[in-house]
Amino acid sequence: EVYDSELEEKEIDFLKNIEELPLNPFSKSFCLRTFTRDGALALKETVLNPKTKLSKEFPEKLKNRFSELRELHKIEIVENILNEHDFEKAIIFVDRVCVANKIYEKFSNLNPVLFLGRLRIGLEKQKEILKKAQKPEHKLIISTSAGEEGVDLPTADLLIIWSNVASPIRFI
């Protein structure tokens, strides 16, 4: 099943403002893709990070508008999916850690586990989380792309892919 998450008028206007920016094509494409695929939270994380080139290029007037926007425009759709489906265990694949953390907070009632990459949490912590995820009381696993390859995630009967399918491995 494919679900659409409509953007609000403010979000559409924000995207139009990005399209009009005098950014290089790569930066502009990155901004548009990040916002529509992962949400305002992910774009905000990038443009407010002083270590990124984009933080210097992105205008202050648009940075100030992030507070007007929903952090995750897809979160209501995901909530509907989780409420409408009868499942033992669900996995949500996301691209960005900030998105994974926000989803984790939102669905605390499902006793979620958060599976991140080795560089972020270490191999031992990954093993510990996978063991925890096997338990039936943990109904939701939220995973970055770290869960795509070479990891034996628990069997799930509901899979949600937050971002578009960027790799054939994720799709499979």
Task: Tell me about this structure.
It is a single chain. The protein is an alpha/beta fold and 172 residues long. The chain has helices at 9-19, 25-38, 40-47, 53-57, 60-63, 75-84, 97-106, 118-121, 123-133, 168-171, and strands at 90-93, 113-115, 140-143, 158-161. A 4-stranded parallel beta sheet has the order 2-3-1-4, with helices on both faces.
Features:
alpha/beta, 172 residues, single chain, 4-stranded parallel sheet, 10 helices
Spatial strand order of the main sheet: 2-3-1-4
Topology as a string of helices (H) and strands (E): HHHHHHEHEHHEEH
The biggest beta sheet reads: 4 strands, parallel
Helix/sheet category: alpha/beta
Q: Give me the number of helical elements.
A: 10
Relative helix content: 40-55%
Roughly how many Å apart are the termini?
Answer: 15 Å
Shape: globular
